[in-house]
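Dear H.,

Thanks for agreeing to be a second pair of eyes. The structure we're designing against is below in token form, covering all 207 positions.
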């Protein structure tokens, strides 16, 4: 009986240890997920801008035709090389974890920049001009090339994370509201400003 009791005690202790270690291991993951959701929830997009941005998507064919015509005329006059423009965009995409192309007077660009500022992630902003109708030849061609990145049209802003286009203002708002902004950044290995790359973790003893 004494041996049987000791066996039960050892089994119970083993089960408790396994459960405890499992709980300790899963706790950081749960905390990280909760932290990401809380970070996204802390960003409150402008509701009016969101509605307007979604409405702009209906005009994509019109804007695409206008952008191509503008690039053909102004780009032709300025003798812009489309390949050079494309190469410049690719360079910026590879050099920056988060890259955004904007218009200086666009409320959609301003909203996207505001969201990125609040997110805490570093980014590079390339302002093509004050607005589309004030673009020069090279900027007009850049607008057309940016329009080829995904099915997001030629409107700005245009946002790239880890070299991949995630869309414009409307799509960025969706990422925030769905709690997926931090997840998207994490997948692209983009860290927040001031985040330490290697933090000591006392929980590593359980791995």
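And this is the sequence the design step returned. I haven't edited it by hand at all.
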């Amino acid at each position: 009986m004494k041996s049987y009791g000791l066996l039960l005690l050892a089994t119970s202790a083993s089960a408790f240890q396994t459960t405890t270690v499992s709980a300790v291991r899963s706790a950081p993951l749960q905390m990280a997920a909760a932290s990401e959701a809380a970070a996204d929830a802390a960003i409150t997009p402008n509701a009016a801008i969101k509605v307007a941005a979604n409405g702009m998507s209906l005009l994509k064919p019109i804007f695409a035709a206008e952008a191509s015509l503008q690039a053909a005329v102004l780009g032709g006059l300025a003798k812009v090389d489309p390949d050079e423009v494309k190469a410049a965009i690719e360079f910026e995409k590879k050099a920056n974890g988060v890259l955004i192309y904007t218009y200086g007077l666009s409320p959609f660009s301003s909203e996207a920049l505001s969201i990125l500022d609040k997110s805490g992630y570093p980014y590079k902003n390339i302002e093509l001009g004050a607005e589309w109708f004030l673009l020069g030849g090279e900027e007009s061609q850049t607008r057309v090339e940016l329009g080829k990145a995904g099915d997001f049209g030629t409107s700005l802003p245009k946002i790239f994370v880890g070299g991949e286009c995630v869309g414009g203002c409307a799509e960025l708002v969706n990422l925030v509201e769905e709690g997926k902004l931090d997840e998207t950044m994490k997948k692209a290995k983009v860290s927040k400003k001031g985040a330490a790359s290697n933090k000591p973790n006392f929980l590593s003893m359980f791995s």
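Two observations from my side: The two ends are 37 Å apart (CA to CA). The chain has a mean pLDDT of 84.

Warmly,
E.
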